Amino acid sequence: MKLLKSSILLISVILLTHGVGKANAFSHFSLQQIIQQDTSKKDTTKKIGKNNSDLDQKVEYKAEDSVRLSKDKSIVYLYGNARVVYGDFELDAAYIKYDKKNNTIFARGTTDPKTKRYIGKPIFKSGVEGTAIADSLYYNSETTRAKVFGVFSEQEGGYFSGGQSKKQIDDELHVKNVMYSTCNLPHPHFGLMISKGVVTEKQIVTGPVYMVIEDVPTPFALPFAFFPKPNKRTSGLILPTPGEDATRGFFLQNAGYYLGLNDYWDAKFLGTIYTNGSYETSLLSNYIKRYKYSGNVNFNYSSTKNGLEGTEAFRNPAKVFHLTWSHSQNANAKPGTTFSASVNLGSSTYYTATAANASYDQRAIANNTMSSSISYAKAYPNGMNYSLSLGSDQTLSTKDISVRLPQATFNVPTFSPFDSKNRVGEQKWYQKITIGYGLQGNNSISTKDSLLFQNDGLKRLKSGFSHTIPVSMSFTALKYLNFSLGGTYNEVWNFQTTRNRYTSFADGTYTYRTDTISGFKRAGSYNLSTSMSTKIYGKKEFKNLGNIKALRHVMTPNVSFSYSPDFTKAGSGPYLAAIDQNGRPILDSYGQDLKYSILENSAFPGSFSGKSASIGFGLDNTVELKVKSSKDTTGTGERKIPIIQGLSISGSYNFLAQRNKLSTLGFSGRSQFTDKLGINYSGTLDPYALDSQLDTASGVRTYIRSNTFTWRRGGRLPRLTSIGFSFDYSLNPEALKRKNEANDKLDAASKKKGLTDIQSEQLAAISRDPNAFVDFNIPWNFSFSYSFQYTNDLGISRVSNTLNFNGDVNLTPKWKVTFNSGYDFENNGLTPMNIGIYRDLHCWDMSINWVPYGAYRSYSVTIKVKASILQDLKLSKRQGFYNTYQ
Q1: Are 562 and 462 in contact (CB under 8 A)?
Q2: In the predicted model, what is the mean pLDDT of residues 683-689?
Q3: Closest to 607 in 3D by CA, of 664, 637, 565
Q4: CA dihedral 856, 862, 864, 870 (to 10 degrees)
Q5: CA 501 to chain CA centroid, nearest Å
Q6: Where in the chain are the domains?
Q7: Mean of the pLDDT values across residues 389-395?
Q8: What pLDDT, in 10s, does the model give residues 244-274?
Q9: What torsion, rounded to 10 degrees, do the Cα atoms 740, 744, 750, 752 define?
Q10: What's residue 464's pLDDT?
Q11: What are the residues whose beta carbons fall under 8 Å from the beta carbon of 485, sequence distance 6 or more?
Q12: LPS-assembly protein LptD central domain spans which residues (predicted)?
């Protein structure tokens, strides 16, 4: 049934492509572009003739070999690369007969006496259309009647060949035994044979239509068909696809109705039902306004029953939804103004409950986040700009959701208030002062997705504004030292604050409860800073060290000083003293009075810290080797190898801190050992030692950070509290290069306007699947990525490892096997594996996808036509996934 349905759809598409209005007789076949013979060159061997009648003056003809006339000169015979031009009709053939009296033209090829091949076939063109080839043809220039034998033409990826076609005087087109195929061979592997048909301006009527594979007629046929041809978008029913899912039972998938609203907007309503009682519904809509905007909306709702009948999971099905909306504005529609939308939100269990909308896409099922954004922005010629946006972020595993309704920004770029556009000469020191302004507003809520739409859900919104005013001045001293002086003023406005109510106990412990208070509260802070940086170059050349010619080391040290007053004094600013139920102050772990900020849970907590006067320091390093290039045949070429790229270490020292004046030391960098292998690494060093305490009652030992440097305890080095590194490697760099190029093309294709929802989803699936790009020109490939992370926080160490690998191999020039998987070090086992087998069948291809184990183990076998115009012509078999019955 599925193949029969596809055949009906394909036949209708094919016949619609034959439709004509008041067009020229040959426009139906004029689509294959063929280079025409250049007739502009003068050749004395050519014989050219014209008649003198009013009608015949429109007909021009010529031939390379000879031009002959009948006795009464009413018939012209053209031999050898003959050419006839009549208005916008052009014809080239080995032989052409032109009857001026009856206004008829006959053209055919000729048989080569040596090779016995039929050469010089008629090639004709009409108007602005392309060209087509035929074995022979008749054409009446007065009545525009035509009869064509053995036509061959290309149209939108399809090819028409063979049979007879006749154009009648009333613009009807009659076809007989014409083959349609997407195979570009002269003798196609398959095709649809249209035994006979009549095409008019508003309808198509055909006789038997059947499929032919390797010259063998198949039983996939229609005895007759009638198709209305309104020549515009029309609405209609969408037939379902039957199948089976191992959990939900047999199904009828994606039955519905297509609604062609107008030339700019359409809609598709689809539904799927399963025999166990589950169902899915969806709404898909595309819209486009040329040169202005385009977008699409996709809403899905599913009710899924799991488990056996009578169980709790079966009685209470999982009801989930998913919404996507994409909108893009043409850059030239409103210069300086942009509006875009990328919405992706839904129930946290949507992908797992529906097996990624029955696509069984492992990457989509394993996806743990969903993000959405709708934004409007406007930029002015003077540099000022503002933006408004709505957004959300979801973590599917924890069901946390953060919603911003809305978020606003306004920025004034830095400018020099004391400088003049008409200044002559160098800037004075005060003319180098720059100032800017930034405003940010936020109205957000963070909660669980199940609580978001409850009655009091929106009461938990946090609202506020943040203002930032930076002031700076830069100059150079002693030619090589770059100095910067400045400061920043920050002020926050919040409409919700918090109050903590503390309860202390006899053992010195305490608890507290937080209350949210509505009302406006402002607070401001500022800091002053100065910084200095320079570059130091070092180079060492080698004469007798093989291919190594030189070593270059570039260091970029920087030093900064910043000062900010104390904004944490209780009673001044946003801080309050922590008081227990008896009015006594609460002490922290160091015996100091505890304070808390009433803005700590507000929309903008601000940057309020204690009194600080700190020096910041950092050092960035780059090390390169200059080696002899093995690819340079002259022996003088050199190339650079970056050994260390951006190895940096930084920290700060706060002179006014009561303890732990020196901060932790962070380092990061990248090393490129070969052209194919590079490692990223980062870590943290703690200069302070740990003190341990043993709880005699429980026997548990705890650690606290002391105020003593590690080197004062036996000359130890700073403690390594965290380190991590990652790298990826491909054993075949050419495969990686081709894959990246293919992904770039997919990205470019996804940005094209006017894509249907099916095409957009197919591009998205290919982008997500590393094995979707199958290149038979790469014989093999194997690549893997690895990441390692180690942390030691107060004596508690954690180690995490991640390994992923994928590859492919050509068993033969037409067979390819792909795979991707990984290793779970925590559970000591492989992650879900996907194995694909592909077979290139020229105009067809075959693919087998297999997930051998895991919660979504499945397999599918598909044989389909490569051409997108026949994407429904396929045979597929899929075994669905299994859920754990609850």
Answers
A1: no
A2: 93
A3: 565
A4: -40
A5: 50
A6: 59-230, 774-885
A7: 90
A8: 777 788 888 889 998 888 888 999 999 999 9
A9: -160
A10: 95
A11: 472, 473, 474, 529, 530
A12: 204-688
φ, ψ of residue 462 to 5 degrees: the values are -110, 125
CB 148, CB 134: distance < 8 Å: yes
- Can you tell me which residue has the tokens 């309860």? 503
Nearest-angstrom CA–CA distance, 84 and 106: 11
Higher pLDDT, 774 or 473: 473
Which structure tokens are listed for 252? 């009828």
CA pair distance 273, 252, nearest whole angstrom = 6
What b/e readout covers 402-417, taking b as 16+ CB neighbours within 10 angstroms?
ebbebbbbbbeeeebe
Cα torsion 81, 40, 91, 155: sign: positive
Residue 74 region by backbone torsions, left for phi larger than 0, else alpha for psi between -120 and 50, else beta: alpha
Nearest to 755 by CA among 237, 182, 261, 328: 328
Give residue for tokens 């300086």: 336
| Angle of CA points 125, 129, 130, to nearest 5° | 65
Smallest CA-to-CA distance from 561 within 593, 599, 531 is with: 531
629-655 pLDDT, tens digit per residue, is 766 555 567 778 888 888 899 999 999
Cβ pair 661, 705 in contact under 8 A: no
Higher pLDDT, 643 or 721: 721
Convert the pLDDT of each residue in 179-200 to its tens digit: 878 787 777 888 888 888 887 7
pLDDT of 137-180, one tens digit each? 998 878 878 898 988 877 656 677 888 888 887 778 788 888 87
- The rounded distance, in Å, linking the Cα atoms of 134 and 94 is 12
Percent of the chain with pLDDT over 90: 28
Q: Where does residue 843 fall: left (phi above 0), alpha (psi -120 to 50 degrees), or beta otherwise? A: alpha
**Element of type H or E holding 552:** strand 548-564
Count other C-beta atoms under 10 Å from residue 48's C-beta: 11
From 76, 22, 83, select the one nearest 53 (Cα to Cα). 76
Could you give the C-alpha distances from 3 to 76, 761, 868, in angstroms and in order? 52, 23, 16
Q: Which of 839, 842, 775, 863 is nearest to 184 (CA)?
A: 842
* Burial profile 596-631: b = 16 or more Cβ within 10 angstroms, e = fewer: bbbbeebbbbbebebbbebebebebbbbbbbbeeee
Q: Helices in 17-165 by DSSP H: which ranges?
A: none
The amino acid at 479? K
- Whether 41 has a pLDDT exceeding 80, the answer reads no
Q: In this predicted model, what pLDDT tens digit does every residue of 229-248 receive, in sequence order?
A: 555 667 888 888 787 777 78
pLDDT tens by residue, 67-115: 999 888 889 999 999 998 887 778 899 999 999 888 899 999 999 888 8
Chain-centroid distance, C-alpha 83? 51
Helix (H, G, I), strand (E, B) or coil at 17: coil
pLDDT in tens, 601-610: 899 998 888 8
The span from the CA of 324 to the CA of 690, in Å, is: 51
How many other C-beta atoms can be found within 10 angstroms of the C-beta atom of residue 158? 22
Amino acid (one-letter) located at 113:
P
Q: How many residues does the chain have?
A: 886
- Max CA-CA distance within the chain? 131
From the list 83, 74, 132, the residue with the least C-alpha distance to 107 is: 83
Nearest alpha-carbon partner for 149 in 157, 139, 161, 137 = 137
d(CA 726, CA 670): 10
Identify how many contiguous H helices and E strands the chain contains and give both numbers. 6, 53
Average pLDDT over residues 776-790: 80
Q: Which fold has domain 59-230?
A: lipopolysaccharide transport protein A fold (2.60.450)
pLDDT at position 42 = 36
**Mean pLDDT, the chain, integer:** 80
E-state strands within 629-754: 638-654, 665-672, 678-686, 688-695, 700-709, 719-730
Distance CA 152, CA 134 (A): 6
Provide the β-strand partners of residue 334.
none
